Amino acid sequence: MSDTWNKRTKAVHAGIRRSQYNEVSEAIYMTQGFVYDTAEAAEARFIEAGEDEFIYARYGNPTIAMFEDRIAALEGAEAGFATASGMAAVNGALTSMLKAGDHVVSARALFGSCLYILEDVLSRYGVEVTFVDGTDLGAWDAAIRPDTKAVFFESVSNPTLEVIDIKAVSALAHAVDATVIIDNVFATPVYSDAIAQGADVVVYSATKHIDGQGRALGGVILGTQEFIRKTVEPYMKHTGGSMSPFTAWMMLKGLETIDLRVRAQTASAQAIAEGLHADGKLAQVIYPGLPSHPQHALTKAQMGAGGTVLAIDAGSQAAAFKLLNTLEIVTISNNLGDAKSIATHPATTTHQRLSDETKAALGITPGLIRISVGLEDTDDLLGDLRAAIG
Questions:
Q1: CA distances from 336 to 44, 207, 327 (A)
Q2: What are the angstrom distances between the C-alpha of 288 and each of 116, 274, 378?
Q3: I need a surface site. Which of 6, 214, 322, 359 has the fewest CB within 10 A?
């Protein structure tokens, strides 16, 4: 692979491992174990496996390795570890490096399961977590201490689409040698330059845009060779959160078309957000690609585009439910990044476990609807939403 290749080319060709048959499409190595010529060879591999030497699928597999290498090349990371789900990646990235007494600073606006890991799981094991308004650099500066071990945030928050300044927060964290861990799902590998902008570790739910077809769960942790091999891999291979070979093959196929899909979805999301904003019939239209978004300038500088997801506020839960139930093309579900457009009511689904006070603080109003824009015709989608809004 050439370092001069652009992302779209890397998404098709990076990480290829061909067998002796020189197949065009990547092979699926559906095996959990591997054979050694001698007992001495088995001993040597368990001491230190060489490149393209595998022990057990929980530790690694040729198909999984192809996916890890390809997404790492796309992101500009040295290495990656593929996981069973996006949340396995978030949990693995954090838990593998933290211990009792460590301090973490995190943005407050997070996906519900991410909040659970930080609020419930890590605190249960003696990790101190300080939450801040992710868009307030002064709050980050005040919360980060000399003993802070890591900072964590979603580069674009779920579901209110706040955009956090990666360069600025990374600079504050690196001043005390803290590790910067970013959940980068909404930015997608297409628009991400997170590692170049200062992130140490990037986490994706491959379930979303990487698969892009609603077929399989998956995740990946990306970072330096040392962090992935020495910190993440020992934790993940012993706790069992690794990806299956068949899932890795599906994710490889997804990467081949991710650039085309995400750019088309983003163009539709931009047009839909502009149309709904111009109509003026909603309490709010939230989209980082709109000039009205508080971090619009940062979005353009950091990502170059607004992404595939927008949020609208219908004014009340009753109005939101009526709108959702009237939609004909847009599907009610809780995934995102799919070829099919999906609408979600976060207050009663993905973030329902939060208190009303916390929801209010995060901007998750009773009328808020998150819309993941798919690959349907843009005019059809806009017409469907306008008809439902009334």
A1: 44, 8, 17
A2: 26, 11, 18
A3: 6
Has this prediction a pTM greater than 0.85?
Answer: yes
Spatial contact of 94 and 88, defined as CB atoms under 8 Å apart:
no
22-26, Cβ contacts within 8 angstroms, sequence gap of 24 or more: 26/63, 26/66, 26/249, 26/252
Domain count, the chain: 2
Q: 351 to each of 90, 113, 310, 369, how far by Cα in Å?
A: 17, 8, 17, 12
Whichever domain contains 288, its CATH number is: 3.90.1150.10
| Contact by Cβ (8 Å): 8, 259 | yes
pLDDT tens digits, residue range 327-366?
A: 999 999 999 999 999 999 999 998 988 889 989 988 999 9
Per the CB < 8 A criterion, the answer to whether 220 and 241 are in contact is no
The parent domain of residue 377 ranges over 258-389
Instruction: Convert the pLDDT of each residue in 136-182 to its tens digit.
Output: 999 999 999 999 999 999 999 999 999 999 999 999 999 999 999 99
Instruction: Answer yes or no: do 352 and 276 share one domain.
Output: yes
In a domain, 164, yes or no: yes
Give the CATH number for residue 137: 3.40.640.10
Q: In the beta sheet, which residues pair with residue 370?
A: 311, 344
Q: Which of 254, 271, 288 lies at the terminal end of a domain, its last residue?
A: 254
Same domain (yes/no): 250, 363: no
